Amino acid sequence: MGESIYIIIAGALGLGLGAVIVGLxxxxxxxKIEEDAREKAKSIIREAEINAEATxxxxxxxAKEKYLRLKSEFEEEANKKKNxxxxxxNKLKQREQSxxxxxxxxxxxxxxxxxxxxxxxxxxxxxxVKKDELDRVTNQxxxxxxxIAALTREEARDQLVEMLKDEATTKASSQIKDILDxxxxxxxxxAKKIVLDTIQRTATEHAIENCVSVFNIESDDVKGxxxxxxxxxxxxxxxxxxxEIIVDDTPEAIIISGFDPVRREVAKLSLxxxxxxxxxxxxxxxxxxxxxxxxxxxxIIEIGERTCIDxxxxxxxxxxxxMVGRMRFRSSYGQNLLQxxREVAKLxxxxxxxxxxxxxxxxxxxxxxxxxxxxxxEAELPHAVLGMELAKKxxxxxxxxxxxxxxxxxxxxxxxISPIVQASDAISGSRPGARREIMDSYIKRLKELxxxxxxxxxxxxxxxxxxxxxLRVLVDADNVDDATASKLSFDIxxxxxxxxxxxxxxxxxxxxxxxxxxYAK
Length: 521
Prior knowledge:
It is a single chain. By secondary structure, the protein is mainly alpha-helical. Helices cover about 70% and strands about 5% of the residues. The chain contains 14 helices and eight strands. The strands form three sheets. The chain has a three-stranded antiparallel β-sheet, covered by helices on one side. Strands 6-7-8 form a three-stranded mixed β-sheet, with helices on one face. A hairpin with a 2-residue loop joins strand 4 (about 330) and strand 5 (about 335).
């Protein structure tokens, strides 16, 4: 027990001594740290003072440089303004000097003008005095002449005017006559030269057309198919197209006869399609003919457009283009109308160019001059006037309209293009081989024959066949019975005898066909 107390006391004494030693050690370290901190603080303060001094010097230098730069810029600007002011002052001094010189010159001129004015006044006064003196003398002499001639001044003047007028009229008439004679001679020579040059420069072909087309076939076996059983195929083809199909002993050829080129073309193309297809019967024939007629209409438009492109004519109305295409299937006195119109257009353009006129307008008028002939409806107006009305309807140029209407002298010519179109039309129609009068009169007679029959009630179609020796009339089976068909044939024959002149006789055949059509669906 006693030992443990001693041990406790010894331990306590050891702890106290250790604490004293640690306290002394810490006290010595804190003094050393404090001294180090003071040294560092002094060092930082010294560095800060050095940096501050250096910064201060830099700022002072920067401020001095900026001051010097601003001072230099200010002095430079001031010098510029000073130089500008000096320059302006010099200019003002020079201008002032020039104004002073001009002012002196003006004063000098004013003095000269004043002097001239005084001289002119003196001269005018002298002239006035002379004039008064001359008037007195003239009046005295006139008075003496009036007494001698027993005429007043006005009467003498009128007589003198009349004498001069008569003399001038006589001389003018003589000169006008000489000028007109010379102009006629020159104009005739020049016109002949232009026409000859135009004809020589326009090369064209003979344009006579026939009323027969030849359809070539590979073998004569096809002829039997075209004729059909008891001739039903050929009758259906003739009824649908309005032409006469001649199948004879001509080898590998079938003749298509008809005065209308459109019908012949439809028949020829239809035959070509039927032969290629091989199916030839009445229903198929009507179907092919209908399609061919539509294709022909499309071809007419294409021909019109191609013609306009070839001639360089633009902006033509679509209906006029269609009429130009129809010309391909029309003829005038045996001359193809489109070929004739193209020829006239080229002649017009050449003549207009030679005369210094508008060649494009002249070419346009030449192409359209006969469009009245292809109007599908029957018109009472002459074809030239009808063509002019159509051109006006489709907004053509007034000069073109006048040229169309005046090319056969139905209306008065109002432009220089009109006589050119008239002359070109005459040149194209009168050249050798261009026309045949008999052909036109023949076609006209056939058309009149068809129109006469179409005027009867119940007639659907009418075709002149065999060069006008036969007239085939297709009637509506619902409205015309057998007895009426017979009477209709007789009435048409009587009307033809009364109203038409023709060689030989004409056979009138009225065809009444009854069809029953149904569709299986």
